[in-house]
TrEMBL record:
<dbReference type="InterPro" id="IPR010979">
    <property type="entry name" value="Ribosomal_uS13-like_H2TH"/>
</dbReference>
<feature type="coiled-coil region">
    <location>
        <begin position="304"/>
        <end position="331"/>
    </location>
</feature>
<dbReference type="InterPro" id="IPR008532">
    <property type="entry name" value="NFACT_RNA-bd"/>
</dbReference>
<dbReference type="Pfam" id="PF05670">
    <property type="entry name" value="NFACT-R_1"/>
</dbReference>
<dbReference type="InterPro" id="IPR043682">
    <property type="entry name" value="RqcH_bacterial"/>
</dbReference>
<comment type="function">
    <text>Key component of the ribosome quality control system (RQC), a ribosome-associated complex that mediates the extraction of incompletely synthesized nascent chains from stalled ribosomes and their subsequent degradation. RqcH recruits Ala-charged tRNA, and with RqcP directs the elongation of stalled nascent chains on 50S ribosomal subunits, leading to non-templated C-terminal alanine extensions (Ala tail). The Ala tail promotes nascent chain degradation. May add between 1 and at least 8 Ala residues. Binds to stalled 50S ribosomal subunits.</text>
</comment>
<dbReference type="InterPro" id="IPR051608">
    <property type="entry name" value="RQC_Subunit_NEMF"/>
</dbReference>
<keyword id="KW-0699">rRNA-binding</keyword>
<keyword id="KW-0175">Coiled coil</keyword>
<dbReference type="GO" id="GO:0000049">
    <property type="term" value="F:tRNA binding"/>
</dbReference>
<keyword id="KW-0820">tRNA-binding</keyword>
<dbReference type="GO" id="GO:0072344">
    <property type="term" value="P:rescue of stalled ribosome"/>
</dbReference>
<dbReference type="Pfam" id="PF05833">
    <property type="entry name" value="NFACT_N"/>
</dbReference>
<dbReference type="GO" id="GO:1990112">
    <property type="term" value="C:RQC complex"/>
</dbReference>
<keyword id="KW-0694">RNA-binding</keyword>
<feature type="domain" description="NFACT RNA-binding">
    <location>
        <begin position="459"/>
        <end position="549"/>
    </location>
</feature>
<dbReference type="GO" id="GO:0019843">
    <property type="term" value="F:rRNA binding"/>
</dbReference>
Amino acid sequence: MSLDGFSMSALARELADALTGGRIDKINQPNKQSIVLSVRQPGENLLLYINTNASNPSAHLIENAPENPAEPPTFVMLLRKQLETGRIAAVRQEGRDRIIHLDIDVIAGGGRITTRTLTLELIGKYSNIILHEDGIITEALRRIGENTSRVRTVFKGIPYTLPPVQDKYDLFTADIADIITRIQSDSEAKLFQALIGSVLGFGPISAKEICFLAGLAPNISVSELDAADFAEISHALNELRTWMKEPVPSLRLEENGKVTAMAAFPLSELPNTQRSSYRTLSALMIDADKRLGSYVIPDRERFRRLVRTELARAREKYDKLGAEIAAAENAEEQKIYADNLMTYQYQYSDHADDEITVPNIYSETGETLTIPLDRRIGIIANMQAYYKKYDKLKRAQQLLAVQQEHCMANIRHLESIEASLDSSTRLAEIAEIQDELITSGYLHEKLPKRSKDRRAHPFSFTAPDGSIILVGKNNVQNDTLTFKTATPTDVWLHVRDIPGSHVILRTNGDEPSETSLHLAAQIAAHFSKARGSSNVPVDYTTVRFVKKPSGAVPGFVRFINEKTLFVTEDEDVLAPILAQDPTVG
């Protein structure tokens, strides 16, 4: 989901008004997909966030810069060298395409002023950021070789070429009658498809909006339209062109808050949807990024994939061990066969039968027992084989049970790491999870050296009565919070049998109020895999009754004297509390 080229024209004008003449003070790269330019204008600093995430590529102004990695990537180092201290001479859109050029004047060797262009190609999964000068590419965020694309290559030292030009009409400059004629010529197409094929920059959102304004179904065939219908389409095109002189950015949302459309003009409200309007395109894009989850924390997805893979392996192993344990439960049957063979061994000849049927010596009612035999060996050898298999299965039962218990411990540990990844929003928190994955043997990398001043801190919330509630974001923080930060009289909370954060309710030695205790339990449910569920069981006890077994993995504890609260998250209660920490989503 992203703006189409038509709506992006309003965004380009907005950025041009804000950034032209500004000096680039700093350039950062929060993750592999985005760049942030800090632009100094008289009396203010502006932040231009350039995002190439395929789900919502965009370039817009933001209020708070994302956190940056400790080591800047190579691409941003090059941009700093090439563009920092330069002034933005122009911000321009390429036709009505989803391409924005930033022309930046910099002082080159010998005091000569030269113009370098940072091109933002915001075209879905092909989005890219390309720096070029005098038509030659200096570097690109994503290099595209001949093996990747036969149509267009992008890498250092070759000429920069634009994507193929589209033969369409520009709504801002073309005669509406010419556009209508082009639509009519595409008689076999659906109306919204004909609009996309006729108007420069139109995507499905803009095209369907014209249909709604004209009172026509987007999927109606052009051949079914009459003169009155085309008159309505002409009126709708004129109305949209007028709106774009003073854009009114809007999002269309489903009832659950999911984004279904975004544009620089007022979108129609369809059944079971709602519309949100914004003062600027940048404000719209900030909200859309939050809703679409466009910002990707470096390494979080990589670690999440690793944990899910390890979890799948561990669960498969657990099931296999369960099957082997079930098979090992037949040990007693092997002993019964052997004992009966010992009793009746002299009544049968060696190598004579594949099986024998005898009265079972363990049956009180005289039932018979059929014993399979290996004819290649004698009766006594068969008896010994059954005793040997019995001993092996008995030993296997014990070993398999230990292995299965260890496997379940690994599953619980991995599930807790998975929950930690969901709660973590800062690079320092992800770094702690990386260290845990390395020390646990799941991630085969060298343990990085960490700066003490970049350590993460737990969530801290203040209840209405002034009580402090602390929440661990990962297993390392959970251990530190429970065994170093908390006092013996503080209350410790955790969702029962479900991965989640350790929660500490500070008491200062006093009895906690029921309101604060219930709030802390809701927070524990919120920061767990049970988030959003109803009647979540949350165990709580004082910290003095929480112990860590020797050799246990991070985050694993045992506790006694617990009580249980069953809670359902109340969004009206939690929202103002969680808003105290801007990183909580």
